Amino acid sequence: MPAPINTFKQRLKNGERVIGCWAGFADPYPTEVLATAGFDWLVIDGEHAPNDLRTIMAQLQVLEGKHSEGVVRLPIGADWMIKQVLDVGAQTLLIPMVDSAEQARELVRACRYPPAGIRGSGAALARASQFAAIPDYTQTANDQICLLVQVESAAGLAALDDILAVEGVDGVFIGPSDLAADMGHLGNSDHPEVRAAIKDGLARIAASDKAAGILAVSDGSAETYRDWGAQFLAVGVDVLLLAKAARGLMDEWRD
Ligand SMILES: O=C(O)C(=O)C[C@H](O)[C@@H](O)CO
């Protein structure tokens, strides 16, 4: 019995557009609610949401067997973090702040067991192997890991063609907020210079053998990013959805 098949990775390889949402409450209950909406992927955000290994694992557990793929975003692409989150069962990773092909190659190696990589072999203890119930997990896991890297700086865009040439990277996500900040337009991802950079980046990624991804939070940007080539497209953030609805409701009753 091999490692679980990563159908999300297969869908990206098949060129399917997949619609996602950020899961930022760092709790399995709202993430389970999001899954009922039918999103193709949900970002369990360990960078900007207060997630830790146990809350990430709990969200992966509630998503087990459901349509929505749990995409785990780490705070940074540290080898030990990748080892831990893969062992608790993540199969799709989103790694922020990738600025070079060398960094991308190191991330690929961190996701793979030897000889292809450096992932520590502790599968007997790991949820990922169903606690050794999958006897050939270590021999079959590498192929089921989907690695998505975030390019979100001027340096990353300058290195994008080299990053796109890295075998083992399955998708490249353009981070509009951090890219805007790095370009000197903090808080304004709709600035013409940032939009031009996003359009160019998505086009180059879409023209490669990788999937292009992005998050749209401003009105109309999701359709624009789709038209610019986004394949894994996040169209909302759960925390913002609740905050906006709650404030709007109170505004209706405020004297
Ligand atoms: O830079 C970006 O934009 C992203 O990486 C997405 C944001 O981090 C997401 O948390 C929404 O703010």
TrEMBL record:
<dbReference type="InterPro" id="IPR050251">
    <property type="entry name" value="HpcH-HpaI_aldolase"/>
</dbReference>
<dbReference type="GO" id="GO:0016832">
    <property type="term" value="F:aldehyde-lyase activity"/>
</dbReference>
<feature type="domain" description="HpcH/HpaI aldolase/citrate lyase">
    <location>
        <begin position="19"/>
        <end position="244"/>
    </location>
</feature>
<dbReference type="InterPro" id="IPR015813">
    <property type="entry name" value="Pyrv/PenolPyrv_kinase-like_dom"/>
</dbReference>
<dbReference type="Pfam" id="PF03328">
    <property type="entry name" value="HpcH_HpaI"/>
</dbReference>
<dbReference type="InterPro" id="IPR005000">
    <property type="entry name" value="Aldolase/citrate-lyase_domain"/>
</dbReference>
<keyword id="KW-0670">Pyruvate</keyword>
<dbReference type="GO" id="GO:0046872">
    <property type="term" value="F:metal ion binding"/>
</dbReference>
<comment type="similarity">
    <text>Belongs to the HpcH/HpaI aldolase family.</text>
</comment>
<keyword id="KW-0456">Lyase</keyword>
<dbReference type="InterPro" id="IPR040442">
    <property type="entry name" value="Pyrv_kinase-like_dom_sf"/>
</dbReference>
<keyword id="KW-0479">Metal-binding</keyword>
<dbReference type="GO" id="GO:0005737">
    <property type="term" value="C:cytoplasm"/>
</dbReference>
<protein>
    <recommendedName>
        <fullName>Hydroxypyruvate/pyruvate aldolase</fullName>
    </recommendedName>
</protein>
